[in-house]
């Protein structure tokens, strides 16, 4: 199952146009089954083995498909390029049976050998893939990446035949199928990569429009630098009959305010960045049908330097933790259904129960600061450009 299959209903829900006005992108998109989506920063590349960002992931998800997908409701693994799989009794060996009708966009069949060659490429240290470590669950993968193992045949990746892929792990990994949904595990068409340059060199032009060969439900149609990337429905995708959208236009808009204005003007069906906090109340009051608040697995936290005073004193760090009113931040400041975070793992995640939060009052925080001899001090805050909270909680 592919997430874009559900988007036609979203298009109808989010459309809004005015009588007598020129046809907007939204209205045109609904008429022609084309999605216009904000997508944050301009992608650095579309190579699944070298990129790191979410904006790249959104586009690559349309162009490539891995062994498994993700059910959009339950988030459980579902068949992707592999129509089924078997797991050994000890949980260490996964055998995937690939669809015989899976095709690359140039018509070539997708085979188990494509995955073997792709995994060897990722683990080539010359490529310096930031996410190569995700494959270290495979037997021998880390040693191969670090040069301690020269023979890739000793890595736990094998293709007994064209449509069978066997992956052997170092030990049982309960979340292995979910791990496969990360784009680092997705295959590339290596003959295409090699046609446009060395496969172990970044910046290979195989990812450009006209060159890209993928196995996903869409193909790369156009890349307008600093503007948009357009993908169109693939005719070779194994489940093309279920793909309702004809095109998706991804717009590189870095400012959440600019993106919201484009949405309000009928230029976007959906935004990439969260709605600016200052506008949430207005949407909830005046346009609730246009605002959708969904669960998102993520944390916002401050990383502190515990090697320098005053933060090298645990009493100071505990005082700061007590002084931050998380409940007020999520109800008064952000106001979009966020939860106060007392642990990095959110409550209810796969049955996980978080430890009890630190208890105490502001008076306790003042006492701790006094004990530490740090009644007053100034802290510097460093954040990536454009990534400070909106507005900044204090």
Radius of gyration: 24 Å
Shape category: globular
CATH superfamily of the largest domain: Periplasmic binding protein-like II
CATH architecture identity of the largest domain: 3-Layer(aba) Sandwich
- Return the string of H and E elements: HHEHEEEEHHEEHHEEEHHHHH
Structural class: alpha+beta
Parts with pLDDT < 50 across at least 5 consecutive residues:
1-19
Largest sheet: 4 strands, mixed
Strand element count? 10
First-last Cα distance: 43 Å
Number of domains: 3
Q: List the strand order in the largest sheet.
A: 1-10-9-8
Arithmetic mean of pLDDT? 90
Helical content stands at: 25-40%
Q: Total helix count?
A: 12
The assembly state of the depicted protein chains is single chain
What fraction of residues sit in β-strands? Answer: 5-15%
Helices and strands, with pairings:
Layout: H1 7-14, H2 25-32, E1 34-38, H3 54-63, E2 68-70, E3 77-79, E4 82-87, E5 93-98, H4 112-122, H5 141-145, E6 157-161, E7 164-168, H6 176-179, H7 190-195, E8 218-224, E9 228-233, E10 247-251, H8 256-264, H9 277-286, H10 314-323, H11 326-334, H12 362-372
Parallel strand pairs: 1-10
Antiparallel strand pairs: 2-3, 4-5, 5-7, 6-7, 8-9, 9-10
Helix pairs in contact: 10-12
């Amino acid at each position: 199952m592919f997430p874009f299959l559900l988007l036609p209903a979203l298009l109808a829900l989010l459309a809004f146009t005015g009588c007598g006005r020129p046809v907007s992108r939204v209205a045109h998109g609904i008429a022609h089954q084309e999605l216009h989506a904000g997508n944050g920063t301009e992608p650095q590349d579309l190579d699944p083995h070298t990129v790191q960002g979410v904006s790249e992931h959104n586009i690559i998800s349309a162009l490539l498909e891995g062994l498994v997908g993700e059910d959009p409701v339950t988030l459980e693994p579902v068949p992707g390029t592999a129509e089924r799989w078997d797991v050994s009794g000890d949980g260490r060996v996964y055998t995937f049976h690939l669809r015989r009708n899976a095709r690359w966009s140039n018509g070539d069949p997708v085979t188990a050998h494509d995955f073997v060659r792709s995994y060897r490429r990722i683990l080539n240290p010359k490529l310096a893939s930031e996410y190569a470590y995700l494959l270290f669950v495979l037997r021998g993968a880390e040693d191969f990446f670090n040069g301690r193992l020269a023979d890739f045949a000793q890595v736990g990746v094998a293709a007994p035949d064209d449509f069978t892929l066997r992956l052997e792990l170092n030990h049982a990994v309960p979340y292995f199928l979910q791990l496969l949904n990360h784009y680092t595990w997705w295959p590339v068409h290596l003959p295409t990569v090699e046609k446009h340059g060395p496969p172990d060199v970044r910046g290979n032009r195989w990812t450009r429009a006209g060159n890209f060969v993928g196995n996903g439900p869409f193909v790369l149609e156009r890349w307008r630098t600093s503007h948009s990337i357009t993908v169109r429905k693939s005719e070779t995708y194994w489940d093309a009959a279920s793909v309702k959208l004809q095109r998706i236009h991804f717009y590189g808009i870095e400012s959440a305010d600019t993106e919201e204005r484009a949405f309000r003007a009928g230029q976007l069906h959906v935004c990439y960045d969260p709605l600016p906090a200052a506008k949430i109340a207005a949407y909830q009051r005046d346009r609730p049908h246009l605002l959708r608040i969904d669960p998102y697995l993520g944390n916002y936290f401050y990383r502190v330097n515990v090697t320098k005073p005053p933060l090298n004193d645990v009493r100071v760090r505990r005082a700061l933790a007590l002084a931050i009113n998380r409940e007020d931040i999520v109800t008064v400041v952000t106001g979009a259904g966020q939860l106060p975070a007392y642990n990095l793992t959110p409550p209810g995640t796969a049955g996980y129960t978080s430890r009890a939060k630190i208890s105490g009052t502001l008076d306790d925080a003042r006492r701790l600061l006094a004990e530490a001899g740090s009644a007053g001090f100034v802290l510097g805050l460093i954040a990536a450009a454009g990534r400070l909270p909106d507005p900044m909680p204090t």
